[in-house]
Design brief:
Radius of gyration: 23 Å
Distance between the termini: 67 Å
Strand content: 35-45%
Order of helices and strands: EEEEEEEEEEEEEEEEEEEEEEEEEEEE
Strand order of the largest sheet: 1-2-5-6
Helix content: under 10%
Largest sheet: 4 strands, antiparallel
Structural class: mainly beta
Number of strands: 28
Number of helices: 0
């Protein structure tokens, strides 16, 4: 009947077809190494014979991604590439990369290739280079230059995203089950260096249409998941804008919208030059209510910058002389 499979684990567009893996077909669980594909251009139709097997029966497909006109299949043990021109010639061939993908959420497209979280670090594909080499011991329980290691057993919760020529990798640095991803490593593909932040997100997604990196469930080092609103999100030129939600979503006594601005990745084209904040622009509709804006730099006491009070969406510029 050419119906698509149900409850699939993922899908990808390649060669004008929709490719899926996992799930069920006709109520029967699909083999973990079976990759199905639709008819060409008619992606709603899945002939029963339109599938290929990836590797042996021991393989388990974790993620499938198209990059530079090719389709790559990431399993728990290897990386495969789909070759062929049609449903009669498609097949999966093994690549030279013998690292498997540890987490389906930790495989993203970048500008020059694909980044993946393997069991022993983070790799760039198809080059096969381990970009995590300078800090690789964090994946084995050791602290490197102040960067805390990945919490043992928390690897399945990690998240990865790519935005503004940078790779973002969020992970949990503790075994405390009440705390989720609370650290983020950032690999700058231009300068080829790592930096890190003491907050993380449970999922990351880049919106190509708006050029935003969006995440959810932000967690900081001093907060457990129970203290964070369910719809916490990260957006904008991340990590420049961190939105926690509105006052009615916060605990009693926490009536505000904290915004953490970290200048570590905000270099304005001059990463080695010191900078100073001059003013803060608040774009908001306060519905006639006065909103006090406070700020601090480097953990100092909060200073009042002024009051914003608008009856419609408007921009208010407040002086803010802070920074080094």
């Amino acid at each position: 009947n050419q119906l698509p499979p149900d409850e699939v684990k993922g899908c990808e567009i390649y060669d004008n077809r929709l490719w899926t893996w996992g799930g069920t077909q006709g109520g029967i669980n699909e083999p973990l190494n079976r990759l199905r594909f639709s008819k060409g251009t008619r992606v709603e139709l899945f002939p029963a014979s339109n599938f290929i097997y990836v590797g042996s029966g021991n393989e388990q497909i974790q993620r499938v991604l198209e990059h530079d006109g090719e389709l790559f299949v990431f399993t728990l043990t290897k990386v495969y590439r789909v070759v062929g021109q049609n449903e009669n010639t498609y097949r999966a061939v093994s690549t030279a990369v013998n690292q498997g993908l540890m987490n389906p959420l930790c495989c993203v497209r970048g500008t020059r290739g694909i980044f993946m979280r393997a069991y022993d670090g983070i790799y760039e594909f198809p080059s096969g280079r381990k970009i995590s080499e300078p800090i690789n011991q964090i994946f084995f329980g050791e602290t490197v230059n102040g960067i805390e290691p990945v919490g043992a057993g928390r690897e399945p919760e990690e998240a990865m995203g790519f935005f503004d020529s940078k790779l973002f990798f969020s992970y949990c640095a503790t075994t405390d089950p009440t705390i989720r991803n609370d650290r983020t490593l950032i690999w700058d593909t231009i300068y080829e260096r790592w930096s890190w932040f003491i907050y993380g997100a449970q999922s990351l997604y880049t919106e190509p249409e708006t050029n935003l990196l969006v995440g959810c469930n932000l967690t900081q080092w001093y907060q457990t998941i129970a203290d964070v609103p369910a719809d916490t999100r990260v957006s904008g030129a991340w990590p420049m804008r961190l939105e926690y939600g509105f006052a009615d979503q916060c605990d009693v006594g926490f009536r505000g919208i904290p915004c953490i601005i970290d200048t570590r990745e905000y270099d304005l084209g001059a990463p080695d030059q010191e900078k100073q904040f001059i003013d803060l622009t608040v774009d908001a509709d306060t519905q006639g209510y006065p909103v006090t804006v406070q700020a601090s730099f480097d953990g100092a006491d909060l200073e009042a910058l002024g009051v914003v009070q608008t009856t419609a969406r408007a921009r208010t510029v407040l002086p803010m002389i802070m920074g080094d």
